[in-house]
Amino acid sequence: MKKLKLACIGCGSRGRTYLGLASKMAQYYEIVAAAEPSKERLEHVKNLSHNPDFQGFENDDEIFAQPKLADVMIIATQDSMHIKSCLTALEKGYDILVEKPIGTNLKDIIKVEKCAEKLGRKVLVCHVLRYTPFYRKVKELVESGVLGDIASVNMSEGVGAFHQSHSYVRGHWGVKEKSSPMLIAKSCHDLDILCWLVGRSCKEVSSFGDLMHFNKKNAPEGAPARYTDGCPAGIECPYNATRYASSERSWLPHVWPVYDENNPAPDEDVIEWLKESPWGRCVYHCDNNVVDHQVVNMLFEDNLTASFTMTAFDHGRNIEIFGTKACLRGGELIKQATGSDIIIKSQFDSEESSYVVDPMVGGYGGHGGGDPGLVNALYDEMGKDDPKDMYSSVHVSVQSHLIGFAAEESRVSGNTIDIESFYQSNLPND
Ligand SMILES: NC(=O)c1ccc[n+]([C@@H]2O[C@H](COP(=O)([O-])OP(=O)(O)OC[C@H]3O[C@@H](n4cnc5c(N)ncnc54)[C@H](O)[C@@H]3O)[C@@H](O)[C@H]2O)c1
């Protein structure tokens, strides 16, 4: 079996996750190179490659100045850097695994799709939910016909209040202009799953949403810009940054230069870091402008309707699929209420079927086994003859990005967006 050679641009939280998983699948993958400005992160990746010939570079320009080094380039830098790296990697002859979102504006995303098509290259998008046992089971049930014809779907994603504050207020994705709208940054996963499950094209989108909570008007009286400057609300505030040294330590591995779980940073070091770090800021005094709640209504072919709610103020994902023969419910609420992951209830009698998805890698919380599922599948996906047959190809992923950008356009303009016209108006010029 010929191993797939992997190189990676950006060895932050996601890049290290994929390379860490690939390093445990040495029968499939050989990690040959990476580009990353942080010396600690690059060293970490070099160590886990177990490859004496591993080549490290300081940034994307340096790695692209080399001849082609690998079969697949993993692109795991921040959102705004993806497009340039994708286009350069395609021109250099790489196939690509790119983190979602593919890019921060629709024109550029379509440009990547067209470039991949022109060059006959493969671009797989990290829509990891497609690789979870939970959504695979839902897809299998939908395709079995047990639900009959699908009339409508409701989905929701509860980001979680502290997660929202960490990533979408203080963190990388708080400012729309520096990253992307909330639905693109966080929920393009959910829009992708929805498109996959219903298996037809979206026609129209309308959306409402707002940044209701994480803004100045909700700041405790006298709260300074940083907690470390002494906030009168003290530990009573659920977002007090000093929680990173206690109850919220689990967020540190995502942002600490290289988190060593065998040798966790002492509390004093965390507090010192908070004095300078964006994560030490008061959540009510940040520069964030992405929404903390949004609802999207969608009309698909055959007049199938769907709605999706993203909210900071819940945890986990839920799905309801209403079919002419039966209704499927699954996700966090069903699990809490019944212990099962999925329940199907007939429209005509009391018949009910329930399903538990393998708890080792299944479920619906977090990535629910999607990260290992994706890395596991990468080898076979890259071996497919037709790039369009890949599970989460750039070709299928454009649709969910299209809906996400259309929803943002609707939220801001107050108009219902016709998807075909929106697509046409976002076609790249060249
Ligand atoms: N698939 C998912 O579920 C999922 C989850 C979280 C984040 N993401 C996406 O993954 C991407 C990465 O997120 P992250 O949390 O790992 O971010 P991160 O900030 O932890 O990692 C990005 C890395 O890129 C490096 N970098 C910066 N400039 C560079 C350059 N010129 N060349 C090479 N490397 C450079 C940074 O030093 C950093 O280590 C983002 O696009 C994000 O939206 C996807």
From TrEMBL:
It comes from the Bacteria. It holds the Pfam family GFO_IDH_MocA_C. Residues 5-126 form the Gfo/Idh/MocA-like oxidoreductase N-terminal domain. SUPFAM superfamilies: Glyceraldehyde-3-phosphate dehydrogenase-like, C-terminal domain, NAD(P)-binding Rossmann-fold domains. One of its GO terms (molecular function) is nucleotide binding. Coiled coil: none annotated. Residues 139-415 form the Gfo/Idh/MocA-like oxidoreductase C-terminal domain. This is Oxidoreductase, streptomycin biosynthesis protein (StrI-related protein). It comes from Lentisphaera araneosa HTCC2155.
